[in-house]
Fold each of these.
Amino acid sequence: MNEQTKARIKELQKEKDVVILAHYYVDGEVQEIADYVGDSYYLAKVATTVEQQNILFCGVSFMGESAKLLNAKKHVYMADDGADCPMAHMAEVEKIEEVRKEYPDVAVVCYVNSTAELKAHSDVCVTSSNALKIVKALPNKDIYFIPDYNLAHFIAEQVPEKHFIFNDGFCHVHKSIHREDVKKAKELHPDALVLAHPECTSDTLALADFIGSTSQIIDYATASDSKKFLICTEMGVFYELMQKNPDKKFFSVGHRQFCPNMKKVSLDKVLEKLEDLKDEVILPEEMCEQAKKPLDEMLRLAQ
């Protein structure tokens, strides 16, 4: 049945002029049929270059919003309309305004894993792969980094000349990867390198041999001479890791490395959305204008 589903998906794509973008955290069978697979930064860039008039996003809601913000004249759809990211909502507009009053020099740096509303009240967006470069490039000394505390803390340690105001948001998947889990996994696989995402807590990151975004973790493992790796991020990334490195072994460090929202996306839901192309991602015009600015600034500064 899967082969029939895949064939029908490809048929409908051509018929309806649809490009499929998928995040590394969705199931491997969905990544397999996507035209482009990547992390948030890569997919944000790709969304601005595709020729198709319809974009089908296999990921969570903020990704579809970002694609729409960067492509106002194109039609954007989510493979699963209920797939959301809790962290994307973990900051408040009222708090942003309070911080701006207290720190007139502040730059509100918004992790791309956030709602369009939060982006609309920010100065620049970042991803885990470009946050350090962009923060360094900002002239502002005061940085209010939203919504993720752990990524903010990781970046702050590398730019001590900046003053960070932290927000208390978090990714429940990465926060649940505990230091003790990594230690136990390391005991089982003592010759494995530990690769961690900066959304993990600082005590977990302290055990890592490499810290980077999802795509950076994949690149590091692929370039490394090592043959075994402990992966501290969502397990959807294992598909690409094994595709690129069939001779290497990858291990999780616990049973919680699973995002239920990302896993809502399935081949059947991709096909269902392609059949009718209903429930387009729609954002208020004024919000689009304001929220696109920090995304454009991100793309400019990250070049």
Amino acid sequence: MKRLPILVAVLRDPGPLPGLRLADWDLLLRQSTSANLSPTLLALIEEHGLLDAVPAQPRAHLEWVRALATRHRQAVGFEVESIQAALARVDGVAPLLLLKGAAYAMAGLRAGAGRLFGDIDIMVPQARLDDVESALMLHGWASSQADAYDQRYYRQWMHELPPMQHVRRQSSIDVHHAILPQTAPVHPDPALLRAAAVPIAHAPGLATLAPADMVLHSAVHLFFDGEFDKGLRDLLDLHFLFREFGVRAGFWEALPARARALELERPLFYALRYSRRLLGTPVPDAVVDALAPAAPNRALLAVMDALFERALLPMHASCADALTSTARFALYVRGNWLRMPPLMLARHLFHKAFLSKKQSS
């Protein structure tokens, strides 16, 4: 593996920060901005007691980042309360199950410290989708997809409603009923996820996925996707989740078995592999051995290493080489391939490439 970009090296080990030159700080902040990780970098610096070692110029930038992160955190809390109030009378959705960034933030997990995200993700039973959508519409949210094909695409084949946006605040909600599209080759049972959900102790009426399920959802979100503009942020989520949950009794022992039960051994294998290789995540050897049967063959794994170890770096010119754009394109194609069978994929890409453009012109 080639030399790590300065941002990845600092996320892996912040110790050398006091020795950075101003030119290093400039590049570090540029990479963190491109990766949407500036507030996370600030949280890491403070966690290690290194803020006083930051020179005046980059520290001024980080203080501005602090204000941004504070406003974001306040907005997330307000939006979650608003969603909770909108769905208070809908049967079968309490407690409100939060996913990804909103779950990390509201549960006070380390992965949520400084994390920026655009959407509030929730998960409800599929049988309650119509009631949930109606209740949200009555409280000001509306579908952001006007195209009839996109509406059909989401409602018939995907694992979520078309994204909804508040008409005044422009805040966005993704309403999931599963964690993978109905057209995907594997089908983690949403009922198993909901049954194991964990209430948030200090936030009545809210819940998150169980620790192992939260890790698996994060893994499937990253490694079944085809867009990696926030890939490093999502890999860092996994790193923090592994570290935080890994000290809990029984977590590592239960994780491979839970992955098998949910048909998610391959994405967990990739999550463990690249969090260890890029971020130095401590993972017990027994867990690595337990996931070995889920690994691709040696040749394919070499290809995936070449792709992921480029695509998971910040989208900044200093992190790219001659093959980076090819790697990102190949993973984009792979992500779509994993989401739908070949004929459906061909129709979908044809519509997006030609018919959608024609309709919008």
Amino acid sequence: MIDDRTGLLTIGELARVTGLTVRTIRYWSDEGALPPVGRSAGGYRLYDAASVARLELIRTLRELGLGLTDVRRILAGETTVAQVAAAHVVALDAQIRALKVTRAVLSTVAKRDSSVEEMTLMNRLARLSAAERRRIVEDFMAEIFEGIDTADPDIRRRLRFPAASLPDDPTPEQVDAWVELAELIQDPGFRAQMRQMVEFNAADRGPDAPAGSSLWFMSRLVSLAGDARRRGIAPDAPEADEILRGLLGGLDRAVVRERLTAASNVRVARYRELQALVNGLGPQPTYDEEFVWVVAALEAHPAG
């Protein structure tokens, strides 16, 4: 206490009571978070018992990571601790997600022994905001479906990957897959391939065709080709022609072969694989051998 029996404390005495340094208390006071209640005859700042309680609250809020601006607003009654805490939770969540992405990027860089250029690209793509990732996907979807109103809605749904975002705690493999996927869907050549595949899908569909009919056809194709392979039927065998006739009816086999070749393209298959990796779905069946069998059978039996 000071000698004038006012019951007030100097900064030095306040520091001894609270365990804080004089420099810290002076800084908080200068910033307006802890205004003095008066001045001594010598011009020294003085504080009362309420200042001690206020100082303890400031210390607690600062230890929780709040800036002095928020501290001042709370002390002034302009906002509540709960409101500021909720805002900081959101900010901390964003920081945690960013740190997890950084960790995953660094793990991927270490695993791949990436160059500086590769690391820069990976970090830039992985750190894209959810809105920016969504924009990349929306731009991709718009280009490959623009003006094609009869494409099967299920095809559109399957080509889109949910939210186009990495999970909150991505694995290095997911970061790697997202980076490759982002590069792939922005490649003009790949977009042209996907556009051709969608055009093939929509060519014979009327406006009233039920959703999923294209997928039903593919499922039946895979099933029949798989059964033929298990039975040891070669693509050039007469039995293969019968299978094609039952599957395709009077469809133009040359057109079907062209469409299947587009759908089973290596880059299209890689797109599906990366999509599954980003979404944590694990390896997905590709049915490559079944498609190869059908294409070979169509080449061996070009006319129905």
